[in-house]
Amino acid sequence: MEYKIVAVEEPEWGIIGKGIRQYNTQQAGDDRYQNLCFVIHGPNQEVLGGIIGATYWEWLYVDLLWIQEELRGRGYGHRLLTLAEEEARQRGATNAYLDTFSFQVPDFYKQHGYEVFGELPDFPPGHQRYFMRKRL
């Protein structure tokens, strides 16, 4: 039987994601995946920033950290990252990782103990993408 490969507009996350998750569990055991999110609420409950990540296989993954410009430099980033790391430790995580771009202040993460373990130069053009980790 011949199988056909086609391009689709909407990725089949439910099917492909489920398949790779089952395979990963067979190979490495249950990852105990849990989402993690803390947000900064303004006076009208609007979201002015936050951190999104997940814990799995005893690691914290920091996916997104963003703070509205007028709140930057006031310690909110430090508090968000600290809260995420503390929650990850409570869940049993012993390490953390993330990726960031050279224009997204990687020194912020270095000040919090993260170190670069990989780099993609000129991604996007004129900038670098850094992959960072930290022992919790």
Beta-strand percentage? 35-45%
- DSSP strand tally: 6
What is the class in the CATH system? Alpha Beta
The first-to-last residue Cα distance is: 51 Å
Number of domains: 1
Count helical runs.
Answer: 3
Which descriptor suits the 3D outline?
Answer: globular
Strands ordered across the widest β-sheet: 1-2-3-4-6-5
Run of helices and strands: HEEEHEHEE
Description of the structure:
The structure is a single chain. This protein has a single domain, classed as Aminopeptidase, CATH 3.40.630. A hairpin with a 6-residue loop joins strand 5 (115-121) and strand 6 (128-135). It is of the alpha+beta class and 136 residues long. Helix content is 27%, strand content 36%. The mean pLDDT is 97. The protein has helices at residues 13-28, 76-90, 106-111; strands at residues 34-41, 47-56, 59-67, 95-101, 115-121, 128-135. It has a 6-stranded mixed sheet. The protein is globular. The relative contact order is 0.13.
Q: Which characteristics define this entry?
A:
136 residues, globular, 36% strand, alpha+beta
Topology:
Layout: H1 13-28, E1 34-41, E2 47-56, E3 59-67, H2 76-90, E4 95-101, H3 106-111, E5 115-121, E6 128-135
Parallel strand pairs: 3-4
Antiparallel strand pairs: 1-2, 2-3, 4-6, 5-6
Compact description:
It contains 3 helices and 6 strands, in the order αβββαβαββ. With 136 residues, it is an alpha+beta fold.
